[in-house]
Amino acid sequence: MKKILVTGGAGYIGSHICLKLSESGYQPVVYDNLSNGHRDAVAPNITFIHADIRDRDALDHAFETFRPDAVIHMAALIEAGLSMREPARFYEINTAGTLILLEAMRRHQCHRIVFSSTAAVYGNCDVNLLDETLPIRPENPYGRSKAMVEGLLTDYGVIYGFHALALRYFNAAGADPQGRIGERHDPETHLIPLALQAAAGHRDALKIFGNDYNTPDGTCIRDYIHVDDLAAAHIAALHHVLHQSKPGFDAINIGTGQGCSVRDIMRLCQEITGNSFAVSDAPRRPGDPARLVANPAKAEDMLNWQALYRNPRDMIMHAWAFYCKMAGPS
Ligand SMILES: NC(=O)c1ccc[n+]([C@@H]2O[C@H](COP(=O)([O-])OP(=O)(O)OC[C@H]3O[C@@H](n4cnc5c(N)ncnc54)[C@H](O)[C@@H]3O)[C@@H](O)[C@H]2O)c1
Fold first, then answer.
1. Is 103 a domain residue?
2. DSSP string over 66-109
């Protein structure tokens, strides 16, 4: 059975990936410092290492003990807004931390990696669908910290013979369809869980940042991708890096190819929960592109993967089911 070291495996997306890995015949080993993750999001039968990716000794110990065949690297700080205020932390953890991990991989002859990148590397591109041939022009330190890792992986592919894939996720959403795990960020900054908190009466009015974009209803358009589809994309990507004979680096969009506006998401959240909540208009946030929608053709061609959940309604229903389970009987 192939062993996969999953950094950030106690986080939102990582915990869903670990479930999918176990179900697909892999043995995940989670490596997470729990700065933002949850110990109970990792199933008790999965090995859990409580450590930081910047800790060389802990990495050496993990590689010596488990001898993983590949790494899925998700550990990172994820809030673009925070990165505008504290860029150094993002470069230290997301970029320098990844370099420390890559060097540990090199010391232990583990040369296969799937990396969590982001649509934020594209920045503000005035195109309908974003494809991987577009230039990388991140607008914030978060996106730049990830773009820099894509640069590192390019060199590690050419010079050190790494097999590396970066998956550029669009907006992860939803929860495990069976309701076992879901999104629990604190503080929460993602639209759907914020709207569900408002629908549950756990938050006051929700803000729409910018209502004058050049979009049909004036609010930003995003490509929401179900976390279960994201997990499946990682299984496909892992298969690719484990079996590809030629080393190198490539980047692949993971999205549905369909956009949904902020206003539509709020309307759907009210409809699905049956609860209305107040929505107020606020100024645009710097660096927020009007539209971020993937062209997912490369993922279909290279990984034979495509999103099964194409309607944000399913993502909201699964997220709401998990939210209600966590909140307990009211
Ligand atoms: N959520 C999204 O919509 C989205 C979109 C694009 C890309 N991504 C990327 O996907 C990955 C996972 O995102 P998420 O939403 O699950 O975030 P998350 O915060 O829930 O998970 C990140 C995990 O990494 C861990 N971590 C952070 N710093 C660490 C360190 N120094 N050492 C060890 N562990 C550390 C945290 O404890 C957490 O469990 C991130 O790399 C993020 O940049 C997420």
1. yes
2. H--SEEEE--S---HHHHHH-HHHHIIIIIIHHHHHHHHHHHTT
For a pocket test of ligand 1, which of 16, 32, 183 has the largest count of ligand atoms closer than 8 A to its C-beta? Answer: 32
The answer to whether 323 is a known catalytic residue is no
Residue owning tokens 């640069």: 151
Has this prediction a pTM greater than 0.90?
Answer: yes
The whole domain housing 318 covers: 191-222+258-292+310-327
Please write the tens of the pLDDT for every residue from 167-191: 999 999 999 999 999 999 888 889 9
- 92 CA distance to ligand 1 centroid (A)? 14
Ligand 1 proximity of 15 Cβ (cutoff 6 Å): no
Q: How far is CA 43 from CA 9, 16, 232, 240, 323, in A?
A: 11, 10, 18, 26, 19
Domains: count for the chain: 2
C-beta of 35 in contact with ligand 1 (< 6 A):
yes
Please indicate, yes or no, if residue 249 is contained in any of the structural domains.
yes
